[in-house]
Write a structure and sequence with these properties.
By secondary structure, this protein is of the alpha/beta class. The protein is built from 6 helices and 12 strands.
């Protein structure tokens, strides 16, 4: 029975992206056959060592879905080492973040963490991409790819041979995920056994950007880097569920009006749980 840990990189804070704002994902995963889900925030402030993260390698968890919602202090060296040891013993790892420097503590994670690009550190090796994409929200700088409004869905394109994460239950290919006004940047780290499996396109510039990078390395658990945690958040599945007060952009309603977007999003999450388990 797969045991999945859904984990944020911040202590519980009412007006922030705490783990309760990913409740629809938790409910969906818990409804799958033979899946156990634990959803939690950090038990201690950033800089201190969270006991669950520090003990991950020796835990009964099979997968870690890490939502890096911090401003740079979300993971310390001991926790990063424990996550690395967890994956080294076969644990599946999904790491996601958001725009600019949000979630930049994953820079010190190595492996799947190296796939994430930020504004102030670990920038995209393509200098042409280190420039604003979304220009509506002036206080958010690159990387900030505009795939649409929160609450709408975006078109996603499979790259190369269709990856298991993008296979629909009817044998087709998934092509929708929740949109977000400023997604983060990801890519394949040098020397990594990994590939880009999906891209989106900016609604401002038309420029394609990476949505997901999948890692499959012999002797290690599978890994996934995802461009934004908003693909997983309640607000982006149904904007009527609310968001922190600092979110200033007007939401859309595409996910409400068109149930196909939500259906495909749920299928993607099902596929991810299965793939991280080695299925």
């Amino acid at each position: 029975m797969p045991r999945i840990l859904l984990q944020t990189t911040i202590p519980f804070t009412v007006d922030d992206w705490h783990i309760g704002r990913f409740s629809r994902l938790a409910d969906h995963l818990a409804g799958l056959d033979e899946v156990q889900v634990t959803a939690r925030d950090r038990a201690v402030p950033g800089g201190q060592t969270d006991p669950v993260l520090a003990g991950l390698a020796d835990s009964e968890f099979d997968q870690l879905w890490l939502f890096a919602v911090d401003v740079g202090d979300g993971l310390n060296a001991e926790e990063c080492a424990a996550i690395g040891a967890f994956r080294a013993r076969g644990g599946g790892l999904m790491v996601t973040r958001d725009h600019m420097d949000l979630g930049s503590s994953v820079c010190s994670l190595g492996g799947v963490g190296d796939a994430h690009y930020f504004h102030s550190s670990s920038q995209d090796p393509d200098p042409d991409r280190n420039a604003r994409d979304d220009v509506e929200t002036g206080y958010i700088d690159f990387p900030n790819y505009h795939s649409g409004a929160n609450g709408d869905w975006q078109a996603v394109r499979a790259v190369g041979e269709t990856h298991p994460l993008l296979r629909d239950a009817d044998g087709g290919t998934l092509d929708r995920l929740p949109a977000h006004p400023h997604e983060g940047g990801i890519g394949v780290p040098p020397g990594a056994t990994a590939r880009v499996i999906a891209t989106g396109a900016s609604k401002v510039t038309g420029r394609p950007f990476n949505i997901a990078v999948a890692f499959e390395e012999a002797g290690r658990g599978r890994g996934l880097a995802q461009s934004t945690f908003h693909h997983f958040a309640d607000y982006n599945w149904d904007p009527r569920l609310g968001c922190p007060t600092f979110v200033s952009e007007a939401p859309g309603d595409g996910m409400i009006r068109d149930p196909e977007g939500l259906r495909q999003t749920r299928q993607y999450m099902t596929n991810l749980a299965e793939w991280l388990s080695g299925e």
